[in-house]
Amino acid sequence: MNLTAMNQSDVCQEYSCPERSVSFSVYVILYAAAAAVSLLTVCGNLLVIISVSHFKQLHTPANILILSLAVSDLLVGVFVMPFHLSWLIESCWISGPVMCSVFSFLTFQAPSVSVHTVALIAVDRFLALSSPFLYSEKISPTVTCIATIFNWLFSLIYNLTLLYINDFTGVMCPGECLYIIDKVSSLVDLIVIFLMPCTLIIILYTHVFVIAKKHATAIRALQIHNRTESSKNRVSDKSERKAALSLGILVFVFLLCLLPFYILSLTNFLKDYSFSKVINSVLVLVYLNSSINPLLYALLYPWFKKSVKIILTLRVLNTDSSLMNVLSLNS
Predict the structure, then answer these.
(1) The G-protein coupled receptors family 1 profile domain covers which part of the protein (predicted)?
(2) CATH architecture of 22-320
């Protein structure tokens, strides 16, 4: 929860732990649903992490970025989502000051890493389609790993600096886990974490789909003159366009989940402080994206389905299982 500066007594006056107003059966159902969503998020992203890390065939630049996104989503599933959902159900923070500090930091760190990783995915697809020869020569898994590590370090340093500048001690109120961010820091955070990367994502993916359409038109023209050669080119280009489309769906869903929260945050910033618990509820949609991503991988990537099957049947424990062909469904 990101609050702009205000008097601590006003915060504590506004937030208090109400008495539970729902029946016990509803209470149990809410907690069961929260546990199920959190477990789905953790298990789904663990399967993505194991798949990309274990199978050497999946050590590609695009998949390394997917791995980075899955690690960020896993952190959300373990340290953020359960506590946030519990907070919403109880209308009160019950997890203590230590978990409040961990929770608060990761509500900054995880979205920061995720947004910039999605921006890197957009850059990756743009280079793969616009400059395929340069991409194949210069963009290796090692280069992508370095970019990914830099992304995590940048987010870590940026968020620690942001919290340090704002004297990250939280607001000590009974049953609350709040932190105060001043107006300048809030504006900087909005620009760095949302406006700049999302603008880049939209611009690059617009170019990606324009380029993909041009490639498809060119391939159809080549088929008239040389069916054999165009067939070879068509396989490679179709693979790149399919990857762009799959990742485009991933990016679109990601932006769809983030937009409501940041629109409300921007609205709050542009007027005098008037925090609404609606924003806290809308944050659930941001965190749910971490649950949705593994489901999208299952729908969009045959290699993920095959990897999961190998993992769940414990064939992953076999010698040389990392060399197994998990891309055969694409051939």
Answers:
(1) 44-297
(2) Up-down Bundle (1.20)
